[in-house]
Amino acid sequence: MRLAWIACLLTLTFAAGCARAEAPRPLLWKVSDADNAVYLLGSFHLLRKGDYPLAASTDLAFEDAESLVFELSPAEMNDPALGQRMGAAARREDGKRLQDTLPTQTWARLEAWSARRGVPIENLQAFEAWFVSLTVSLLEMQRLGLDPALGLDRHFARRAVEAGKPTEGLETGAQQIALFDGLDPRLQQQSLEEVLADAEKMEENINRLHQLWRNGDDAGIEAETNQRLREEYPELYRRINRDRNLAWLPVLEQRLERGGKDEDVLVIVGALHLLGDDGLVNLLREAGYTVERL
């Protein structure tokens, strides 16, 4: 399983390629009860300029919604201090260097990567493996021209501000930091090893996943990502996907159960949070709501 490109669809949010003739088919569902509707839109957190404009159905969902909900509120999403807090949380406090905590082979691979990319290896020694893993992923994606400023969540966060629509987050930046900082060292090492192994195939993997997203291929994305993550890293899958979906479910149900109020909401989260048996789409369907793919 390649954890680097799963990050594009899961949490922490392409090159300016050729314009596309057709807008991407959105991963968009409408969940409704007698009064209200929740639109669920699966985000790719980094996109190409050619992915815009979006499909008409996506824009119509935005227009219909009185408010928007993201994984993080736009205020935190755009706050530079969040990255600083993440770096501070990742600093080692055990008196050891990163090198002292990794197998010799893993450290050698990290040294080789840092030499190829011109990243001073000493700059990484003071951090925990989870942060280095995210750093390697981000730098590799940026090398391919991946731009979080073009991601679907940031796109709609800007539009919500321009339209004066209220926004909120399903979780806080502190919760997201704790999610990674609380990972068992074994899982952190595993994640770093996978990211380093994936670096050489990053472009191929990202392009394939991005095309699945453009095609609106929910089954393809589920097979490529959630299914493999469940099989190969069940504990990691539970922490970063299933548990968070279950925590968000009652929040969305509350929005649906505002009886007598016409307050539709557009919810934009990483696409993997919508897919599969543990995804929000299925969880809301099992809860008895009407669910339709748009």
UniProtKB/TrEMBL annotation:
<dbReference type="InterPro" id="IPR002816">
    <property type="entry name" value="TraB/PrgY/GumN_fam"/>
</dbReference>
<dbReference type="InterPro" id="IPR047111">
    <property type="entry name" value="YbaP-like"/>
</dbReference>
<feature type="signal peptide">
    <location>
        <begin position="1"/>
        <end position="21"/>
    </location>
</feature>
<keyword id="KW-0732">Signal</keyword>
<dbReference type="Pfam" id="PF01963">
    <property type="entry name" value="TraB_PrgY_gumN"/>
</dbReference>
<protein>
    <recommendedName>
        <fullName>TraB/GumN family protein</fullName>
    </recommendedName>
</protein>
